[in-house]
Specification:
By secondary structure, the protein is α/β, with parallel strands linked by helices. The chain has 14 helices and 5 strands. Strand 1, helix 9 and strand 2 form a beta-alpha-beta unit. The model has no long low-confidence stretch (mean pLDDT about 90).
């Protein structure tokens, strides 16, 4: 069992105390192996009893069992010594990519390609930084000859959902999966018969429950260094994987090359 992925999967269902413990374990998993239960309780502002209940909640027999499972999943780069900011950022990116890669399902990407080919209109939605990622994804799909548009304004995306119809595809990019305007838009789009695909950093959230197909990524809030604030990196990595897969299709590849000849790599 990949215990760290299990914690991320269950995260939204944890209590406030359990989330304190989960946050610490996910950010500092490389330290847990040498840490006694009392020290973890102290660092998370909880108690030994809270840690014990949390351990049982995630399916482990005891605290030692959890530590063993965490250590079994540790990779050498997680503990490597860094020399300067460039190395720190490199290790951060490596860990985000590695953890996102564990969640990638090629069967889902193949299913996504089928939905893309069948869609009459493709609407990609996201708020704030996820809106920037939505813009980038729409440009990539447009360059493949697909009818794709991105929306980051809550009213505009809701308006598109209100006139959605069967055959339309909505792609929601939402790290938390709980953003009200995204949930409202998808609820309206689904009511009108649209197909919904989502990319999110949490399991079993309102957005994923509305979706016909869900891609999960590693949530970068769990990286153990607060200096890193690129919440979209794991999503962009997944988007690169999906884009590369789509370009295996000769029609998509040919149209992308044609647009590149006209406008370059803008």
């Amino acid at each position: 069992m990949d215990i760290l992925m299990k914690i991320q999967e269950d995260y939204l269902n944890f209590s406030k105390q359990e989330k304190k413990i989960a946050d610490y374990i996910l950010r500092f998993s490389h330290e847990i192996n040498n840490m006694k239960i009392g020290e973890l309780a102290n660092r998370t502002g909880t108690s030994n009893a809270s840690i014990t209940r949390f351990v049982k909640r995630i399916g482990c027999n005891n605290y030692s069992d959890m530590k063993f499972l965490i250590n079994a999943k540790a990779d050498p780069e997680e503990n490597q010594e860094t020399h300067g900011i460039a190395d720190e950022v490199l290790v951060y990116y490596q860990n985000v990519i590695k953890n996102t890669q564990r969640l990638i399902d090629i069967n889902k990407i193949q299913a996504f390609m089928g939905l893309i080919k069948q869609a009459e209109n493709i609407n990609i939605i996201g708020i704030s930084s996820s809106g920037v990622t939505a813009d980038l994804f729409s440009i990539r799909l447009m360059r493949m000859g697909l009818t794709a548009k991105s929306y980051s304004d809550p009213l505009w995306m809701l308006m598109q959902a209100s006139i959605a119809k069967p055959g339309d595809l909505f792609i929601a990019i939402s790290n938390s999966g709980t953003t009200h305007s995204i949930v409202e838009t998808l609820t309206e789009a689904k009511k009108n018969g649209a197909t919904i695909v989502s990319i999110t950093g949490y399991f079993e959230n309102p957005v994923s429950k509305l979706s016909d197909l869900v891609f999960y990524v590693y949530n970068t809030r769990f990286v153990h260094d607060e200096k890193f604030s690129n919440s979209q990196f794991s999503m962009v990595y997944l988007m690169d994987v999906i884009t590369t897969f789509l370009l295996e299709d000769e029609e998509f590849k040919d149209k992308t090359l044609k647009t590149r000849e006209i406008v370059g790599d803008l």
